[in-house]
Amino acid sequence: MSELQERVRTAERWTGRTVLSEQVRAALQSVPRHLFVDDENTPLAYANRPLPIGYGQTISQPTVVAIMTDLLDIQNSDRVLEIGTGSGYQTAVLAEVAKQVYSVEVVPELAVAAKRRLGQLGYENIEQITGQGRDGWRDQAPFQVIMVTAAAEDIPITLINQLDRNGRMIIPIGPNGGPQNLIRICKDQAGNVTESPVLPVSFVPLVQDLAIE
User: Fold this and answer.
1) Which of 87, 135, 145, 182 allows an S-S link to 80, with CB 3.0 to 4.6 Å?
2) Is 25 helix (H, G, I), strand (E, B) or coil?
3) Which residues carry out catalysis?
């Protein structure tokens, strides 16, 4: 945790934050990251690097998970939409600090594996579906918080529409393999939306064309 805190301080010039909130620190300490990676990558589970989880997807490095979660200022009364369940690690971290997490995963095999892991760990405040991330989860909207864990070339208007008044959203924006920035989006009480670039990042692309059966 001390190494992670140091990396967060190093990113201050982009994020404006020198320390993680107490809630986020506790969440990161509570979630056993090694249970969310393949056996062959277990020795690297706590290294500050992304790791492959199959199907062209990755589990983000701990620093990025920490910063993205912290920047959303999640309250224990918030309902959170996560786009990209992946292995379920970020989902679990969100579930530690939010009232309810709704997670959407486009790859059925990853969705099934994540649901099994999260169930075994006893999380009861997570709901999951398999679907296209850009569509969000209309039936459960609006959400006070939206986190997108894959890069889009533009901000999906559908997700903006599902963000509640006074809501926060974070999403990596940029081309696959090209320059990307983490963008923090806020919607005020009147429905006005502001966008703030936060941090240079590198994410796998938000899948748009995978057929869902």
Assistant:
1) 145
2) helix
3) 60
Q: Angle, to 10 degrees, between the axis of helix 89-97 and the axis of helix 22-30?
A: 130
The letter for the amino acid at 69 is T
pTM of the predicted model over 0.85:
yes
pLDDT in tens, the chain (213 residues): 777 778 778 887 788 887 889 999 999 999 999 999 999 999 999 999 999 999 989 999 999 999 999 999 999 999 999 999 999 999 999 999 999 999 999 999 999 999 999 999 999 999 999 999 999 999 999 999 999 999 999 999 999 999 999 999 999 999 988 899 999 999 999 999 999 999 899 898 887 544 333
Q: Which CATH number fits domain 2-201: 3.30.465.10, 3.40.50.1000, 3.40.50.150, 3.30.40.10?
A: 3.40.50.150
Q: What is the CA radius of gyration of the chain?
A: 16
